[in-house]
Design a protein that fits this description.
It is built from three helices and nine strands. The radius of gyration is 17 Å and the shape is globular.
């Protein structure tokens, strides 16, 4: 089978299955965020492993997601409304911003459709590149997936996933 001029060593059935798994992981994160926005923290907790590993990069006062997940604050203190959600293997990357000083990227790691880790970047520099082959092509490409740059958010065009 040919894909963009390359002969793919991967069968179509594998590629379909991989795409389906990616979409299921994306749906899990989307459902979690939807439940959090509605204030249903107990329902949202069902998407998380009980020993969730959490990493935070940014100003300490901006640890909003952990405050919501642990029940220390209500969902209205800060609304995580993603502007874009992308999948890179077992990682689901959500990014958003609410104002000039509130730019965030969440990298959710999933295993068997359960969230096992959250790495949160808040008002900090971050670049994510997808280096997996796309559509079963032979070879690797570095495809920009996202970029967090809080200093130019208000002056630059959308810096999301492209």
């Amino acid at each position: 089978m040919a894909t963009n001029g390359f002969n793919s060593p991967l069968p179509k059935s594998y590629l379909k299955q991989k795409h389906m798994l990616d979409m299921q992981n994306k749906a899990v994160v989307h459902a979690l965020l939807k439940e959090l926005v509605m204030g249903h923290t107990q329902t949202a907790a069902k998407f998380l492993e009980s020993d969730l590993e959490w990493w935070f990069h940014g100003p300490p006062q901006c640890q909003y997601m952990m405050s919501v997940l642990t029940g220390k604050s209500v969902h209205t203190d800060f609304r995580f409304k993603p502007r874009r959600i992308e999948v890179v293997g077992d990682y689901v990357i959500a990014e958003g911003w609410e104002e000039e000083n509130a730019y965030w990227v969440h990298v959710w790691t999933l295993k068997d459709h359960a969230i096992i880790q959250l790495t949160e970047y808040f008002n900090t520099w971050l670049s994510v590149r997808n280096i997996r082959p796309s559509n079963g092509e032979v070879g690797m490409k570095a495809i920009p997936c996202g970029r967090a740059n809080p200093r130019t958010l208000h002056t630059a065009p959308y810096q999301g996933f492209y």
